[in-house]
């Protein structure tokens, strides 16, 4: 959308609880994610990147809808949805998981939060997992209740986010470990706070549990963060590609399996518990894969923005894959990309060719993630 006063989607596209505040704080363009508006433009995306990596940004990510699963069999049911072994998932802990279909294809790559022994939230990427989970439950013979709760996350990300959180919640919030969460209040606003985020930077997600107080929460955080350089922002394509983070529908979809993305660590074929896609994933592991995700450097002038179509990758004029996400990194001073490529062409140093419109651009397979590969920044406390 080029003008926030001229939305044309109607009431079927929901506004987040923070919508009015994001407009007041300068949001100019929105896209749609999980059937909701998400701010995608607070000005120069390169400046947004530097705000993130040098100070902190506050992002409206209410589009990361929660699927709530409760009931006597909730733990068994959640395990049935994912190939990741959840037997050691503690109450108060989060895990990055995959949700797979019967063919082993990826339906979603969300964060799972365990609120109680049989109470979970699945914090979604962009796909209708609520409907999937309800459909799977119908014939599961398990006693579960599945709904979308009134929960809307914000992301507070960047090196100064810890100081801002301490101003809001006191020093004890700094004790929250990476991929753990706790329930808190801010002036009576009910929240759940987690040490997670879609940025590859140090940060927090702040889950609002009362949608009527969204604008109030946004303003309180911005006021607390202003002296520390907090800016309103949007999730940074530059930083998430630097970090090799997946964007669902771009870098993964239902026709992509975990092995192609190098995510074997999220699969446990040996656990006793069954899960959707177990037989298919075992077959894929035994037979091997024909393609694999790689990192690329693209040797051309700095890209003006992310790719909006999949670019064909060729080797000696023969198509061998596609570029799924590409961007110019002002920090690395190069064009970087994630791509899915036939396995014969995945060796580091392999030279390929990318078709960008009518231009043919040389590309080289490189290691990914492109920056901070051990995630030391995000994990640090």
Distance between the termini: 38 Å
- Taken from the alpha-carbon principal axes, the silhouette is globular
* CATH level-four homologous superfamily name of the largest domain: Probable tRNA modification gtpase trme, domain 1
Report the uncertain regions: none
Q: CATH topology of the largest domain, which one?
A: Gyrase A, domain 2
Q: Name the structural class.
A: alpha+beta
Number of helices: 9
> Count of DSSP E strands?
21
Mean pLDDT across all residues, rounded? Answer: 96
Percentage of residues assigned to helices: 10-25%
Report on the biggest sheet: 6 strands, mixed
Radius of gyration: 21 Å
Cross-sheet strand order for the largest sheet: 12-13-14-11-3-15
Structure characterization notes:
This protein is an alpha+beta fold. It folds into three domains: 19-65 and 150-241, Probable tRNA modification gtpase trme, domain 1 (Gyrase A, domain 2); 66-147, Aminomethyltransferase beta-barrel domains (Alpha-Beta Plaits, 2-Layer Sandwich); 247-366, Beta Barrel (Elongation Factor Tu (Ef-tu), domain 3). 20% of the residues lie in helices and 31% in strands. It contains nine helices and 21 strands. The two termini are 38 Å apart.
């Amino acid at each position: 959308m080029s003008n926030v006063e001229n939305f044309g989607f109607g009431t079927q596209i929901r506004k987040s609880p923070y919508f009015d505040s994001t407009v007041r704080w300068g949001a100019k363009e929105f896209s749609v994610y999980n059937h909701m508006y998400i701010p995608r433009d607070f000005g120069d995306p390169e400046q947004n990147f530097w705000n993130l990596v040098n100070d902190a940004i506050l992002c409206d990510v209410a589009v990361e809808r929660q699927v709530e699963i409760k009931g006597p069999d909730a733990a068994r049911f959640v395990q049935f949805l994912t190939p990741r072994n959840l037997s050691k998932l503690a109450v108060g802990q989060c895990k990055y998981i995959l949700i797979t279909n019967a063919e082993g294809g990826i339906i979603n790559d969300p964060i799972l939060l365990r609120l109680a022994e049989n109470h979970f939230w699945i914090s979604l990427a962009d796909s209708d997992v609520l409907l999937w989970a309800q459909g799977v439950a119908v014939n599961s013979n398990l006693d579960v209740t599945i709904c979308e709760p009134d929960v809307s996350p914000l992301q507070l990300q960047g090196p100064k986010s810890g100081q801002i959180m301490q101003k809001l919640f006191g020093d004890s919030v700094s004790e929250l470990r990476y991929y753990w969460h706790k329930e808190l209040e801010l002036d009576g606003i009910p929240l759940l706070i987690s040490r997670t985020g879609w940025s590859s930077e140090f940060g927090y997600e702040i889950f609002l549990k009362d949608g009527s107080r969204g604008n109030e929460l946004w303003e309180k955080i911005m006021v607390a963060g202003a002296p520390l350089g907090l800016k309103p922002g949007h999730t940074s394509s530059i930083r998430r590609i630097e970090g090799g983070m997946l964007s669902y529908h771009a870098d993964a979809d239902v026709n992509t399996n975990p092995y192609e993305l190098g995510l074997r660590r999220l699969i446990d074929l040996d656990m006793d518990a069954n899960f959707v896609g177990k037989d298919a994933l075992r077959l894929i592991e035994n037979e091997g894969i024909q393609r694999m995700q790689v990192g690329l450097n693209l040797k051309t002038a700095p890209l003006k923005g992310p790719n909006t179509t999949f670019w064909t990758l060729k080797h000696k004029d023969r198509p061998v894959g596609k570029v799924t996400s590409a961007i110019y990194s002002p920090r690395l001073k190069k064009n970087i990309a994630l791509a899915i490529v036939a396995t014969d062409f995945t060796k580091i140093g392999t030279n390929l060719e990318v078709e960008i419109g009518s231009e043919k651009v040389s590309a080289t397979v490189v290691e990914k993630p492109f920056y901070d590969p051990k995630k030391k920044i995000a994990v640090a406390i």
